[in-house]
From TrEMBL:
GO terms for biological process: porphyrin-containing compound biosynthetic process. InterPro entries: Aldolase_TIM, Coproporphyrinogen-III_oxidase, Elp3/MiaA/NifB-like_rSAM, HemW-like, rSAM, rSAM_sf. It comes from Micromonospora olivasterospora. Belongs to the anaerobic coproporphyrinogen-III oxidase family. HemW subfamily. This is Heme chaperone HemW.
């Protein structure tokens, strides 16, 4: 399938221990930010848990005492101070992008989100043209809070719409009404946001072609300059998975998901939005999410917050998951890092191929070995790669190729 919903994972991988002080190998810090440097801030709070969600998020009932929202900004700033110490000898030249994700970041007071952004600026300095994004659920923002965030320096907002069909929202356990997401998009533009994204999920059990077409119509009518659309995946341990096991809901269909993707491409393309990554469309190059592009090209970023992932110079690490454990480590002056891995050249190559092939700019053919180039030739013959781009030395997916992106990647790797 062309795209799946991704965010902070509920289960963390294994790896080697992170030093108590969070220090990194000298080789990792020699060229910090050479490809760009971003900061991700994870806010793990949600008002309620959606049925499909297995992300590292918590409701107030799940958290109990000692790890609430009130002190969260201070805890994030404590990790930021640690990050400054770790990179003291080789700080990034600037922060190109900031992305505040969740959870629902806008459950925090706008003043706390302002303090976090100010802290990042004081620590490393925001680039003059820095992209600063916050995610938000449509019901968690108001015209006043949006104006506060815009005045604080946030330039982009990503709203979790998911669908415009009430029945689909009910299956997903979303709390906002069908029209609230597009109304929030209008409020964000009125507040002065340069860029507004709406997220869609397709392939929800019970969603009809007409339901999805209606969602696309509302997105287009909202006039946003960026749209993300992801196929629903059902994760073990979620309420949605339990309902399917009981036979209350059917499992998603790959054929239906492919039809929905083609519908999205047709509707968004006709409205002037072009794909630049398999699951993302933008109205212009300036509207593309620069923070996500840092991930896709293997740049550096520091992830703040429980469960957050970071990558600097080929070293990737991830923090402890629970907000209480995260806060406890930082209060003791210790790194919240749970584990890390140093990518081998082979692993780095594999990730480079997997991620760059998803981009409309594609992958240079000369980074592939002989077997990979033979695989690219087969993909070209099967109509999965663009012939003109192939002739110019790049592997770029066709529309059919986007539907089979994972299969193409497998053919290009050893």
């Amino acid at each position: 399938m062309p795209g799946t919903l991704v965010a902070m994972p509920g289960v963390l991988p294994e790896g080697e221990s992170v030093p108590v002080d969070g220090s990194l190998p000298a080789a990792a810090t020699r060229a910090v930010g050479a490809r760009g440097f971003g900061v991700y801030v994870h806010v793990p709070f949600c008002a309620s848990r959606c049925g499909y969600c297995d992300f590292n998020t918590y409701t107030a009932e799940e958290l109990g005492g000692g790890a609430g929202r009130e002190s969260y900004a201070d805890t994030v700033l404590a990790e930021l101070a640690l990050a400054r110490r770790v990179l003291a000898d080789a700080p990034p030249p600037r922060v190109d992008t900031v992305f505040v994700g969740g959870g629902t970041p806008t459950l925090l007071p706008a003043d706390d989100l302002t303090r976090i952004l100010d802290g990042i600026d004081r620590t490393w300095g925001l680039a003059a043209d820095a992209e600063v994004t916050t995610e938000a659920n449509p019901e968690s923002v108001t015209p006043e809070s949006l104006k506060t965030l815009r005045a604080a320096g946030y330039t982009r907002i990503s709203l979790g719409m998911q669908s415009a069909a009430p029945g689909v929202l009910a299956v997903l356990d979303r709390r906002h009404t069908a029209g609230r997401a597009t109304a929030a998009a209008t409020e964000a533009r009125d507040a002065g946001f340069d860029h507004v994204n709406l997220d869609l999920i397709y392939g929800t059990p019970g969603e009809s072609a007409e339901d999805f077409a209606g969602s696309l119509e509302q997105v287009v009518a909202a006039g946003v300059d960026h749209v993300s659309a992801y196929a629903l995946i059902v994760e073990d341990g979620t309420r949605l998975a339990a309902r399917m096991r009981r036979g209350e809901l059917p499992y998603p269909s790959d054929d239906v998901a492919a039809d929905r993707y083609l519908a999205a491409e047709a509707a968004l393309g006709a409205a002037g939005l072009s794909w630049y990554e398999v699951s993302n469309w933008a109205r212009s190059e300036a509207a593309r999410c620069r923070h996500n592009l840092l991930y896709w090209i293997g740049a550096d970023w520091w992830g703040l917050g429980p469960g957050a992932h970071s990558h600097v110079g080929g070293v990737r690490w991830w923090n402890v998951r629970h907000p209480s454990a995260y806060a406890k480590r930082l209060a003791a002056g210790e790194s919240p890092g749970l584990a890390r891995e140093v990518l081998t050249p082979g692993e780095a190559h594999m990730e480079d191929v997997m991620l760059r092939l998803r981009l409309a700019s594609g992958l240079p053919l000369d980074v592939l070995d002989d077997a990979g180039r033979a695989g690219a030739r087969r993909a070209l013959d099967d109509g999965l790669l663009d012939p003109a781009r192939y002739a110019s030395g790049r592997a770029v997916l066709t529309l059919r190729g986007r539907l089979l992106a994972d299969a193409v990647v497998r053919d290009l790797l050893p």
